[in-house]
Amino acid sequence: MAQKFFELIPPGTRFPFVKTAKYFIALSFVLIVVSIATMAYNYTTRGTALNFGIDFAGGSSARLQLAREVPIQDVREALNAAGFESASAVTVPDADNQVIVHVKDVASIDMATAKGCEEAVNAYPKAKLKRPMSYQEGASKMFFVFESAPVYSELEAVLSKAGCEGKVDKGTGKQDEFPVEVSLVGMGVKIQDELNKALGQGTVTSIVSSETVGAKVGSQLKADGVKSLLYALGFIFLYVMLRFDLRFAPGGILALAHDAFITVGAFALTWKEFNLQTIAALLTIVGYSINDTIVVFDRIRERVALSRDTPIEETTDIALNETLSRTILTSGTTLLVVLATWALGSGTIKDFAFALMIGIVVGTYSSLFIACPVFLWVNRRFYGGEGHLLTADDAAAATVDAGTVLAADNAEIDEATGRAIGDLRAEAAAKAASQGEGEADKGQGVGAEDGDEPAKASRRRRRQRPQS
User: Fold this and answer.
1) pLDDT in tens, 70-79
2) Is pTM, for the whole model, over 0.70?
């Protein structure tokens, strides 16, 4: 009894992928235009195309535990009143009375305050500075070198009075020097203090986590993220070119760029935070999408090898329909998991799942309607149907010449002319009869009698039917 397997798409389905590709390409064009327009609008109205997180824009983030439930709007107003730049606050849905605060500030003191602290240290009577203070704006530490050992508790008090609150510790340096390292109070502590002042002492009970990224580091991370995507696309291009054919590679890479750009456009449209986790999601999308595209390309290559005389457009349609069931089932089951993660997750996990959700849908669609049409265009435009990848026009033109007569199986072939011996004899006999010559039966040119051929006759070979 023959086994039956479940197939989502009935066998024999012939959806015209190639003919309808132009409509889906137009849809992609609209999505890309909307993405660009959204980013331009965000840049005009908000000053940045994407809602970059502190990973890329620089700033500080703190997750705070509150002693009681506080309206999130009150937290935002307290941060704005304290003078924090571009402050935002959101509640943590999976935790009781916790908030996440983002501010653009990266250090608790500015350069003017740091200079004031240096002057206060210069006035410290028990130890003299050997060289100027070492401090970079946005850094969390200050470095001093004294000629003699200072009293750390007294130095902390001097710095705190000048506005540089922090912990003083022994630094590293030469034997004849007395280095001091000052760890400034982090932004998390400062945010905690300001909220307690505004909302009441004891409102913020603890700092769950705190993170600070300088503007320069953020710019470097942003550049590294773009480079990682470009490197991934470049190496995938080389892989597809070597694994298949150069004519397949442009379609695969264009489809990947299409998927990544539309996913970024979705983040611009929803104004979700764009951070390092989003870059990781984009790289995941690129890997998943190229896997789907390679499966489609592999089936096209197999079909082309089996049907060398069939136009490449028809072969591509057959291959895409054959892989359609597999494509929908694979992408659909993966999408179900991502949807569950998005619905039940929170924070960065939710945004990561959102990126994957958009990428899987767009990546599956691009493998069918972007990568394959580009492959067909490259084959037609730059290769002209060379080899067996014939276009429909090439197949129509490649007809058998009307003047060519194919020899029957098991017929004797004259190697000089490539024609059957029997055909040559018949032509010679007809020619002799038309000229009224009575010497036709003498075997001139080609013998009239079986086996009676002149010594100068062409060599013969017999084409035999293959033995079964």
Assistant:
1) 888 888 888 8
2) no
Q: Do 152 and 116 touch, CB atoms closer than 8 A?
A: no
Is the backbone of residue 412 left (phi > 0), alpha (psi -120 to 50) or beta? beta
Residue 358 has pLDDT above 60, yes or no: yes
- State the total domains in the chain: 3
Residue 142 located in a structural domain: yes
- What's the CA gap between 377 and 391, in Å, rounded? 10
| Sequence letter at residue 282 | L
Query: Are both 167 and 66 inside the same structural domain?
Result: no
∠ CA(304), CA(310), CA(314), 5° rounding? 80
The answer on 34 and 97 residing in a single domain is no
With a CB cutoff of 8 Å and minimum separation 6, the contacts of 155 are 121, 124, 127, 168, 180
Query: Do 163 and 264 reside in the same domain of the chain?
Result: no
Token readout for 319 is 């291959």
286 and 322 assigned to the same domain: yes
Does residue 123 sit in helix, strand or coil? coil
pLDDT number for residue 389: 52
**CA-to-CA separations, 262 to 252, 256, 359, in angstroms, rounded:** 16, 10, 8
Residue 67 is given by DSSP the state S
CATH of the domain at 74: 3.30.70.100
Mean pLDDT of the chain: 78
Range of the domain at 372: 17-44+217-392
Q: How far apart are CA 235 and CA 128, in angstroms?
A: 58
Q: Which of 234, 228, 227 is nearest to 290 (CA)?
A: 234
How far is C-alpha 156 from the chain's CA centre? 51
Residue 125 sits in a domain whose CATH number is 3.30.1360.100
In single-letter form, the type of residue at position 382 comes to F
Return the CATH number at 354. 1.20.1640.10
